[in-house]
Amino acid sequence: TAVMPAFRRSKSVSPVGWQSHALFTLLIPSLASSLAIPQSVIDTINGGGIAIVPDFFSPSVVSRLRSDARNLHASGHFITDGLAGYGKSAGSRDKKNFDPSKDRSVLPAYVPSQKRDGPFVSTTLGDVDARREMTTAIASLRTELASSLDRPGLDTPDGPNNHEISFTRFGPGANLARHVDEHHEELKGVRGWSVPTRRSISWLVYLNEADW
């Protein structure tokens, strides 16, 4: 199981696979302890590479988050995400062949289409304290990266759609095709310059068992 959280410039986004999005760099905490980010990680991100940080969270926090994700999925709180493949009919968009069990589902912190908070930030569902510990750590990470990478737009107060973290689960046989999460502003036309923020850093926290 893995979680998929991601960052935008002043906004931020979080499988039996749970994982995050990316522009140029994925910061991937694997099992998950202290927040001190090694200079080598900063250098890798600055160079446009993929930085891997083992044990970013303690094993106990990872275990609690994994259990929380499983329980919330079993309780029907996840939303099916059509970006993933449909098992054997991967790439098909024929709804009659759609099989949710083979697709990607998410438990979002924010639902843009409805402009409301999602179940990830609910104070009444599941292990609230474990998810809060994670979001607090990610907020601190954002502050540290804003300073270390000289990207002040990363360090903004939390607000609507500012934290696009989510649990993400891939069903058996599902896959997510290679894609680009964020294009350069010039490639978006007028829309590219209509908002003050864009995704700058993306990250993944895998919550899978150690032997997955």
UniProtKB/TrEMBL annotation:
GO BP annotations, alphabetical order: cellular response to hypoxia
Domain of life, per UniProt, equals Eukaryota
State one molecular function term (GO): ferrous iron binding
Has the keyword Nucleotide-binding been applied to this entry?
no
Q: Which UniProt keywords apply?
A: Vitamin C
Q: Which residues are listed as membrane-spanning?
A: none
Record InterPro entries: HIF_prolyl_hydroxylases
Q: What is this protein called?
A: Uncharacterized protein
